[in-house]
Write a structure and sequence with these properties.
four-stranded antiparallel beta sheet
């Protein structure tokens, strides 16, 4: 959970590509620019158009010669995306997606997949981030991140500065304050370089704001950056009709048809996991929430319309899920663009693919992450990090109407949050005030908090009324009674395993095995046993499981 919060702050620490210098002239009418962008998006719903989006790593010294390119055609409900990589003028195709009649046809090399939208495991780095950046976005004069200030123009291209304010500004200030506490000798070379870039980006935005570029004639976003990725939209134009091959499907090939929704019985055999098929140790731009069928080993991406997410909880009869993520059109990503989705919690129907905000946007004060639902189905726990003091506001979410009540604010919060059998409280962990071990705590629904023993990563085994936890010194797994008494070694201690998730019947359990020099591996065990097996054949990282 803490890893997710940290990565969320990194994703939100935006930086935008530098614009070419031109002389400033008359400022545009912002309301007219917003109306122009709105009309463009409305026309795009039914009129054919094409454009190219180019994305490059802004901190790469070869970024002018190495970049990703997405060529897009759109004609009503038909869409196509062709992803390619260009290296010093040599271009190679990476993946093609053609959407026809609500079905994706995905071609990657010699693999041909049919699936419902946003369920494909796109096996190339930053895949759903690139897909999100390939969309068209319009100007909006209001933004929760700060104020938009006109800077200059060159023809129809308009440069603005987004001056950070509110929660976004506090994030940047916190990044700077915390950076001074990290000693250089405690960091790897990669970490030191990353820190230097993050500090420079935060200082630049606090001092000067973030530059973004819009087109006055269409009102659409032309240039910007997200994290280390700068992007530009080029060659946007309307078409009388799209070319014949824009939506032509490959013939004479065998499509792997995954369009059938899984049944209720199949979902009973499933867990939610975070998965990144292109994971590189220490860096991930492609983590997304997947449904893993533990019986077959097959995985499908939760159809969250966004660029990255991690799992929180199943809902109802397990045919819906809550994820914590960054949606494709979030204003937190794109400065002055149209706000039609959120950073934080979203509920996703696994059968229909419908996406809905589950709670208020995090930048507006809503939760950023949520626990699994309580055993009686009435509550969940939401976390709302408060910056710059790094407190986490712990909130009780009532599932029937999603009303929220604050329980307490807590610093040094650890995870996960695990419900007690009677749904009258949760077990969590928190770090020491100064020097000492991480401790397990009980949080009651009246907001009272009590420490009861050293330990970390608690998971309540509700049927046996025991707590599985990781001992802080040996890092071996133990169990204890609900009050912390009667500790016992779990199995053989399962060294180098973490992030447990138990099955609903509590007969099996998942652990993430840490492998030096390679991606962590999700392992499936019978409860109480020391020997497990890989839970999936998928390459890359699979972990952070939610099963109950």
């Amino acid at each position: 959970m803490n890893q997710f919060l940290a990565s969320s702050f990194v994703v939100l620490a935006l930086t935008f590509s530098s614009a070419r210098k031109t002389s400033a002239t008359e400022a545009p009418d912002l309301s007219k620019l917003a109306e122009t962008g709105k009309r463009t998006l409305e026309k795009l719903e039914n009129s054919p158009a094409t454009w190219i989006t180019r994305c490059r790593l802004s901190d790469n010294p070869h970024s002018q010669h190495i970049f990703s390119e997405i060529k897009v055609f759109r004609d009503g409900r038909r869409q196509s995306w062709s992803f390619s990589q260009s290296v010093y003028g040599a271009s190679s195709n990476v993946c093609d997606i053609i959407e026809v009649a609500g079905i994706w046809h995905v071609t990657t090399g010699r693999d041909f997949l049919k699936c419902r939208p946003y369920e494909a495991d796109l096996r190339f780095p930053a895949s759903y981030l690139l897909l999100a950046l390939a969309d068209i976005r319009g100007f909006a004069s209001e933004n929760p991140l700060g104020t938009m200030e006109f800077e200059k123009r060159n023809g129809s291209q308009l440069w603005f500065r987004l001056r950070p304010a509110g929660q976004y500004r506090r994030i940047l200030e916190k990044n700077l304050a915390e950076s001074d506490k990290l000693k250089a000798n405690d960091l790897t070379l990669h970490q030191r370089r990353y820190k230097e870039k993050a500090v420079a980006q935060a200082r630049e935005q606090l001092a000067h704001g973030a530059p973004v570029v819009f087109d006055e004639q269409t009102g659409i976003l032309l240039e910007g950056t997200i994290g280390p990725m700068s992007f530009s939209v080029e060659g946007f134009r309307w078409l009388d009709r799209p070319p014949e091959d824009a939506f032509a499907l490959r013939k004479g090939v065998r499509w792997d048809d995954q369009t059938r929704p899984w049944s209720a019985e199949e979902y009973e055999q499933c867990a939610l996991v975070a998965h990144d098929s292109s994971f590189v140790e220490g860096q991930s731009l492609s983590a997304n929430t997947f449904v893993l069928n533990l019986k077959s080993g097959d995985m499908r991406r939760v159809p969250f319309v966004g660029m990255t997410s991690v799992p929180c909880s199943f809902l109802g009869s397990r045919n819906a899920a809550v994820v914590a993520g960054v949606a494709s059109r979030s204003a937190a990503m794109f400065g002055g663009t149209d706000l039609d989705s959120s950073v934080g919690l979203a509920s996703v129907d696994l059968v229909t693919g419908k996406n809905e905000p589950f709670a208020e946007d995090w930048l507006s004060g809503g939760p950023l992450w949520m626990s699994e639902v309580s055993p009686d189905g009435q509550y969940a726990i939401g976390l709302s990090p408060s910056l710059p003091d790094m407190e986490a506001e712990v909130r009780l979410i009532k599932m029937s109407d999603r009303s929220v009540r604050t329980l307490l604010k807590i610093t040094r919060l650890g995870g996960p949050l695990s419900w007690l059998p009677e749904s009258d409280g949760i077990i969590l962990s928190r770090g020491p005030r100064q020097i000492g071990p991480t401790v397990l705590c009980r949080l009651n629904l009246d907001g009272t908090l009590k420490d009861f023993r050293p330990g970390d990563w608690p998971l309540v085994l509700q049927k046996s009324r025991r707590i599985l936890y990781q001992e802080t010194g040996s890092q071996l797994w133990h169990t204890c009674d609900l009050d912390g008494s009667n500790p016992k070694l779990y199995a053989d201690g399962l060294a180098d395993h973490g992030q447990p998730a138990v099955s609903p019947d509590e007969r099996q359990i998942l652990f993430t095995r840490i492998n030096k020099g390679s991606a962590p591996q999700l392992m499936l065990f019978e409860l109480g046993k020391s020997n497990g097996r890989p839970a999936t054949r998928a390459e890359g990282f699979t972990g952070q499981a939610v099963w109950r």
